[in-house]
Amino acid sequence: MRIDVLSLFPDMFTNVFGSSILKHAQESGAVDYQVVDFRDYADNKHRKVDDYPYGGGAGMVLRAQPFFDAVEDLQQGSKSKPRVVMLCPQGERYTQQKAEEFAMEDHIILLCGHYEGYDERVRQFLVTDEISIGDFVLTGGELGAMVIADSVTRLLPGVLGNDQSAITDSFSTGLLEHAHYTRPADFRGMKVPDVLLSGHHKNIDEWRHRESLRRTWERRPDLLKDKDLTEQEQKWLKEFVRNE
After folding, report:
1. Among 16, 75, 77, 110, which is least packed, fewest CB within 10 Å?
2. Is 134 annotated as ligand-binding?
């Protein structure tokens, strides 16, 4: 996969893409990151990429021309038409399902905005997706772009080493992930559940499933509203309610 980022502050990505799993993913060839200062595509000698808004108002607006020229340049030689993703507070709220969707693509271009926003023609005629990482406003789109790059990269084949890790993550199954324990089995009188020490894999899998459902019911009941629950899951939910 190829992930390009258009940013006014490319140095912000140096440590993120050069560390930990993202670094190893790039070294293994699973992903290719490129961060581009879209000032390089400005059509003026001062590399100015913003201007005053028509109709007046506070702040500056990012011009359409640098984004269009940069995206047209970056998509040359791409195997397929890239997903062009605008980071914007007005966008669709980012989810694990969206990360999984992006991970199926060959090429993603992330646009990082600043100031009062983008010229509307970027939104109308260039981008394929508008994404917000939450209902709050940041100084720019860089942190959102890092979130998307990280969440997508870890889903690529071979990146985590154990492909089951991504499958069982919170939200991937529609439920929050169950609790985890490691050695020692008894820490200051706080013990690991007996079932996890039993070696009985079927019982362990059932416990983990039940605990995932319990944790979701306790912490994020909204996730259960649109989920098709199995008969067993419905029974467990009734038990949780009775024992509340």
Report:
1. 77
2. yes
List Cα–Cα distances, 187 to 60, 142, 169, 224, in angstroms: 57, 41, 26, 34
Identify whether 89 is a catalytic site residue. Answer: yes
Average pLDDT of the chain? 94
242 is catalytic: no
| Among 2, 154, 208, 210, the one annotated catalytic | 154
For residue 223, pLDDT beyond 70: yes
Of 222, 221, 224, 228, whose CA–CA distance to 244 is shortest? Answer: 221
Tell me if residue 214 is catalytic: no
Report the SS3 class of residue 131: strand
Task: Using a pLDDT cut of 70, give the percent of the chain over it.
Answer: 97
CATH topology of domain 168-242: Trp Operon Repressor; Chain A (1.10.1270)
Residue 108 has pLDDT above 70, yes or no: yes
Which class does domain 2-153 fall in? alpha beta
Catalytic residue among 2, 40, 69, 89: 89
pLDDT band at 161 (very low <50, low <70, confident <90, very high): confident
Tally the C-alpha atoms within 13 A of residue 181's C-alpha that lie toward its C-beta.
15
| Model confidence, pTM | 0.88
Domain boundaries, the chain: 2-153, 168-242
Told to judge if 116 belongs to the known catalytic residues of this protein, a careful annotator would answer yes
